[in-house]
Amino acid sequence: MDPGEAIAGGRTALGIELGSTRIKAVLIGPDSAPLAVGSSDWENQLVDRLWTYSLEAVWTGVQESFATLADDVRRRHGVELTTVGALGVSAMMHGYLAFDADGALLTPFRTWRNTNTGRAAERLSGEFGCNIPHRWSVAHLYQAILDGEEHVGRVDHLTTLAGYVHWQLTGEKVLGIGDASGMLPIDDVTRGYDTAMLARFDQLAAEAGVELTLAELLPAIALAGQPAGTLTGAGAALLDPTGRLRPGAPLCPPEGDAGTGMVATNSVAPRTGNVSAGTSIFAMVVLEQELGRVHRELDLVTTPAGDPVAMVHCNNGASELDAWVGLFAEFARGLGADVDPSTVFETLFAAALGGASDCGGMLAYNYVSGEPITGLEEGRPLFLRAPDSRLDLGTFMRTHLFASLATLRIGMDVLQKTEGVRLDRMFAHGGLFKTSGVGQRFLAAAIDTPVSVGDVAGEGGAWGIAVLAAFVTGRSREQSLADYLETTVFPGASVQTAEPDPVDVAGFDAFMQRYVAALPVERAAVDHVTVGRRQTADPETTSAVLTEEQPA
């Protein structure tokens, strides 16, 4: 079908994803190929020591991404975007959005990046018998209870960022099961929230002097392929204030960026996995069987279809690497060189290939924020080296690339070596892997596993949620998500696979020994270096090339 005819006839699916540094919209056709894209950049803020985005920024960014998408449709296909066949919303997982009975936000959005929930996460992990990460919604709620926050008694509804946008577009308070699994653990049999944990949470709240019923506060759960509402007139006006977009499109369950990353890399079947590297870095591995015991480094979540997944989530990904690349770009501009950001990245990444395999005595910690895997509630970016280490560009860049993967390696060691989990394939996607043959090669060394990249990631998480939207209207009766992806979306997809280089593997191992041994230095920096009350990322020195979540 001609793309213009497909768009005019509503034979399309629209995906919108709110990542850490970019809000992106992708329109796909009947063959799942992207027809148009739009985006809007945004940045989180550190306000009163908590990372947040304003709801005003949410809608400014969503509307701008849709407007630029509509412009792209008009420019490329010569038609107006007035309807879509299906729609889906995805966003950064976890965090805390609490609303009262009138729909008013009770406290600024607390994102996945916050690590102020240590007491709550530790208590809930012990009470529930499973790892409850700092960033999960239930940890945020319990921490607010422990801290005696006034708003707790007025909470009527909790959700995630994807759930909030979906609610505003449809009126439905619902979440995809993958995103819901970052609010409270899921029962593998019922595919609902764990009822024993719901009851125990209510008891813990009562012991702290708060009467609530957690089950009444959480969104309903839906699986991939199930309809989750339709675009209302008010929702259409929110997306497109020009009034051109008509209501009525069905929506798929809203999902987190981890779930859309699994879809975008065809990694929803057991023994498959993917690594997403942007502002954060995380690995998702679909499990064949239960883990042997609880590990604080591993989160148990689900695929969008509800299958169990082990997640290694690191709060800090490429932001610090981005900052250093921005510094070199600023230096180049000072010399009068007119270079685009992609050229700067490619040049510096290529230099890393020639650096010392073990980083030659250099160390870096990319901790812009706290890092629960290594027990740090706040972060202080650090670079340090031994007095006798040679300071050359290649080794310096390799050190920062290794640092971006180091905390992930700690969690993957637990998964692969302690639990013996096996992988048939691991895909890598996100800004860290855009420069061919560098990030992919170093990740293969970090986890001593072949790593694939390629066109399977499409346009990132926005494309992944568009595929999930199309799955609602386009799947055969009772067709599984894994089968739909394999037979309809990804047949013939090309990938490039990097095998671990023994020299790189040995070098990364040596780097990790120094990295773990020097963690007390990072702890000392947190203890002795203070942070201002308000901080906003500087768009002039921070590039979205790496930190864009794809899907992240």
Automatic annotation (TrEMBL):
InterPro entries, A to Z: ATPase_NBD (IPR043129), FGGY_C (IPR018485), FGGY_Carb_Kinase (IPR050406), FGGY_N (IPR018484)
Enzyme Commission numbers on file: 2.7.1.17
Matches recorded under Pfam families: FGGY_C, FGGY_N
SUPFAM superfamilies from the UniProt entry: Actin-like ATPase domain (SSF53067)
Keywords: Carbohydrate metabolism, Kinase, Transferase, Xylose metabolism
Domain called Carbohydrate kinase FGGY C-terminal: residue spans: 274-471
Coiled coil: none
Annotated spans, Disordered: 533-552
Major enzyme class: transferase
Gene3D superfamilies noted in UniProt: 3.30.420.40
GO molecular function: D-xylulokinase activity
Domain Carbohydrate kinase FGGY N-terminal positions: 13-227
Similarity comment: Belongs to the FGGY kinase family.
Protein name in UniProt: Xylulokinase
Organism: Blastococcus deserti
High-level lineage: Bacteria, Bacillati, Actinomycetota, Actinomycetes, Geodermatophilales
